[in-house]
Amino acid sequence: MKYVCPLIVVKDIKIARDFYERLGQKVKYDFGENVTFEGDFAIHLQDHFEKLLGVSGVRDSIILKKSNNFELYFETEEIDRVYEELKEAKVEFIHEIREQPWGQRVMRFYDPDFHIIEVGETMESVAIHYFRIGMSIEDICKKTSLPQEFVKKATGFLED
After folding, report:
1. Burial of 20 per CB tally in 10 Å (0-12, 13-18, 19+)
2. 148-155 vs 123-132: helix axis angle to the nearest 10?
3. Is the separation of the CB atoms in 13 and 30 below 8 Å?
4. CA pair distance 151, 22, nearest whole angstrom
């Protein structure tokens, strides 16, 4: 058996697709009621999904909103720019950019169907930031829990 991808259920496939494309995701496959993005996650139209489950029309939707038990995680080297674009688009933030204990800055917000989306800066960016402000390789490793080889490569001390 091979794991393929996470699939989230959405109320309106067009709205959801547009939202993820604005986040920079590119469509890999579009099957109408199911769209897979190159990052290997998929969105599936709620009405169709409920029919596949055999619960369509049986009762109110079984799809929970704001269940807060799952998130899609993305990384960027331009977290401040992404944050400004999301703020302009009036997304509902769970929290704005905040620094995690290991030094990575992240934000969490809801997509149009209230799935949690996390966007964090790449760990390479974190290592480079700490290096540029004068931290030693050893101190960066201690702060971030990243392996020394990773930090050396990110900061240019280790060739490919």
Report:
1. buried
2. 70
3. no
4. 31
> Is pLDDT at 71 greater than 90 in this prediction?
yes
Cα distance between residue 147 and residue 132, in whole Å:
18
Give the pair of three-digit tokens for residue 4: 């393929």
Mean pLDDT rounded to a whole number for the chain: 92
Count of C-beta atoms within a 10 Å radius of residue 54: 7
What is the pTM for the complete model shown? 0.86
Question: Percent of the chain at pLDDT above 70?
Answer: 94
Residue 145's identity, in one-letter code, is S
* Cβ atoms of residues 109 and 128 within 8 Å: no
3-state SS assignment for residue 115: coil
Tokens of 125: 């960016």
The predicted-structure confidence for 9-60, as pLDDT tens digits, reads as follows 999 999 999 999 999 999 999 999 999 999 899 999 998 988 888 776 655 6
| Cβ neighbours around 159 below 10 Å, total | 6
Residue corresponding to tokens 């807060």: 68
Reading the block at residue 25, the tokens are 């995701």
